[in-house]
Design brief:
The structure is a single chain. With 428 residues, the protein is α/β, with parallel strands linked by helices. It is built from 13 helices and 14 strands. It folds into 2 domains: 212 residues, 3-Layer(aba) Sandwich (Rossmann fold); 197 residues, Rossmann fold (3-Layer(aba) Sandwich). A 7-stranded mixed sheet has the order 3-2-1-4-5-6-7, sandwiched between helices. Helix 4 runs parallel beside helix 5 and helix 10 packs across helix 12.
C-alpha cells in the first residue's frame, strides 16, 4: 500500500457540499457534517459481521475515510456502503491485528474502533491509545457461560477506569466467528454513536454500556412474518431477520424511495423513485437468501394478518401503529413494535399468551390519535411530508432489538419492553 499516494489523494480532495441524502441529519441542532467527512477512523474487526455493519453505517452517516484491519469484510455490505457514499475512501488490510507495527496503518486516524473479540488486539489498541493520545471505542459481542450480549465503552487517555479489565476479551487469540447477527447490528450502531460523538466533540458515555441475556438455540423455524414499513427500521429488521434464518417475510409499504431516505435506508442506494417494499424484498432475496414477498399497500382496518405468525411494526406514524396494535389484539398475533426518533426509540412487545397491553395501549396512542384533526389522516406520513431529523444509528439499534426480542420469544424466554436513549449513559 502506497501511503504517500494516499496522502496526496487526500490532500487534493476538493471540498464537497453535503449531498441531499444527508438532509435529515443536517437538521439536527449543532450537527457538523464537515467534521465527519474530514476525519479518518481506524477499525479493527473480527471474523464476523460487526466491522462490516460498522463500515456500512459509517458510510451512510457520511464518514468518508475508513481504515480497516480484519480477516474479512462482507462484500455485500461494503458494496452497499460504496454505492451509498461515493466519497468513501476505504482502506482494507486483510488479516488479524496481532502486532504493534500494524498500528502504523492508522496514522492520521482520529478515532480507533475496536470491534474485535480477542485480547491481543484489545491490549495493542489500548496501548496505542495511550501512546498517541487517541480515543478507542471498544464494542465487543460475546457468548460465554450460557449468556450472550455485548458491551461498549470509550477509552481516552486520562480516563482511567477501575473496570478497564472488562474491556479485554478472555480469549487472547482469534476464535470462531460470532453468530448472533442482531446483537452485532446493535453493537456496531452503538460503536458508531460513540464515534460520532467523539468526532463532533460531544459527550460520550461515562459508563460501560452492556446488554446480556441467555444464549439462544439455533433457529430451526421459519414462521410467516409481516413487516409493515420498509423504511429505516424495515431495512435493518429485514437484514437481521434474513441473516438470522427467517426467510418467509412479507414487506408492506406504499411509498417510493426519495433521496433523503438514503442516510439510513441502506438498501436503496440506487433505487430513487422505486417502491420501498419491492426494492427491499428483491435485495434480501438476491443477496441474503430470503424468500420475501411485498405489498405496495397501506396497512388499513381491513388488512388480513391471519396468514402470519408475527407482525413487525416498523411504521413512522401513530395512526397506522394503532391500527396494527388493534389488529394483532383481535387476531391474537405476536406484535413487535419499534419506534425511533433522532436519538431515542423503543421496542414494545405484545405476546397474546402473556397478555398485557398492546403497544398502542401502552403508548397511549388512542388519545394521541384522537386529538388529531380527522381530516389530516390520510394526507400522508412519509419522510417527504414530515422532514424531521433522523440518523442511522437509532434505527439500527431499535431494529436489532426488535429481531432479538422476537427470537427470545420463540425460544421461550421472558422478554421486556426496551426504551433506548442515546443521551443517557446506560442507553437502555
Amino acid at each position: 500500500m502506497d501511503f504517500n499516494n494516499r496522502k496526496q489523494k487526500t490532500e487534493n480532495r476538493k471540498p464537497v457540499f453535503p449531498h441531499p441524502r444527508l438532509d435529515r441529519q443536517l437538521r439536527i441542532p449543532g450537527w457538523n457534517q464537515e467534521a465527519l467527512e474530514e476525519a479518518a477512523v481506524g477499525v479493527v474487526g473480527d471474523d464476523d459481521l460487526t466491522a462490516s455493519l460498522y463500515v456500512l453505517s459509517a458510510a451512510a452517516l457520511g464518514v468518508n475515510r475508513l481504515v480497516v484491519v480484519a480477516p474479512r469484510l462482507d462484500p455485500r455490505l461494503t458494496h452497499m456502503a460504496s454505492r451509498l457514499n461515493p466519497q468513501l475512501d476505504l482502506v482494507f488490510l486483510q488479516g488479524f491485528f496481532t502486532h504493534p507495527v500494524l498500528a502504523d496503518i492508522f496514522m492520521g486516524c482520529r478515532v480507533l474502533a475496536d470491534l474485535s473479540r480477542y485480547g491481543l488486539a484489545n491490549k495493542l489498541l489500548l496501548n496505542e491509545a495511550l501512546r498517541t493520545n487517541r480515543p478507542v471505542v471498544r464494542a465487543c459481542c460475546f457468548e460465554e457461560g450460557g449468556q450472550a450480549g455485548f458491551q461498549v465503552f470509550t477509552y481516552k487517555k486520562g480516563r482511567e477506569w477501575e473496570e478497564l479489565g472488562k474491556l479485554i476479551s478472555r480469549a487472547q487469540l482469534p476464535g470462531a466467528p460470532f453468530p448472533d447477527v442482531p446483537l452485532a447490528v446493535i453493537a456496531a450502531a452503538l460503536a458508531l454513536e460513540e464515534t460520532k460523538n467523539l468526532l463532533l466533540g460531544r459527550r460520550v458515555s461515562e459508563t460501560l454500556v452492556s446488554y446480556r441475556r441467555p444464549s439462544l438455540p439455533e433457529n430451526d423455524r421459519d414462521p410467516a412474518i409481516l413487516v409493515v414499513g420498509a423504511g429505516a427500521l424495515g431495512n435493518f429488521a429485514g437484514l437481521a431477520l434474513a441473516q438470522s434464518g427467517f426467510g418467509n417475510l412479507t414487506f408492506m409499504d406504499p411509498e417510493a424511495v426519495e433521496v433523503t431516505n438514503l442516510n439510513r435506508q441502506v438498501f436503496f442506494y440506487d433505487a430513487l423513485g422505486r417502491g420501498k417494499a419491492e426494492t427491499l424484498t428483491a435485495r434480501l432475496n438476491e443477496s441474503f437468501g430470503a424468500r420475501a414477498r411485498f405489498e405496495a399497500a397501506v396497512f388499513g382496518e381491513d388488512t388480513d394478518i391471519s396468514p402470519y405468525e408475527a407482525v413487525f411494526d416498523c411504521v413512522d406514524n401513530f395512526e397506522t401503529r394503532l391500527l396494527i396494535s388493534d389488529a394483532c389484539r383481535r387476531h391474537k398475533k405476536i406484535l413487535i413494535s419499534g419506534g425511533s426518533h433522532v436519538d431515542a426509540g423503543q421496542v414494545v412487545v405484545y405476546d397474546p399468551p402473556r397478555g398485557g397491553p398492546t403497544p398502542g395501549e401502552l403508548l397511549g396512542l388512542p388519545e394521541i390519535v384522537g386529538k388529531r384533526q380527522k381530516e389530516d389522516y390520510g394526507k400522508g406520513y412519509s419522510c417527504l411530508n414530515r422532514p424531521e431529523p433522523a440518523v442511522i444509528m437509532t434505527n439500527q439499534v431499535i431494529a436489532g432489538f426488535m429481531v432479538d426480542t422476537y427470537r427470545r420469544l420463540l425460544a421461550g424466554q421472558g422478554v421486556e419492553n426496551i426504551f433506548y436513549d442515546a443521551g443517557r449513559d446506560r442507553r437502555f
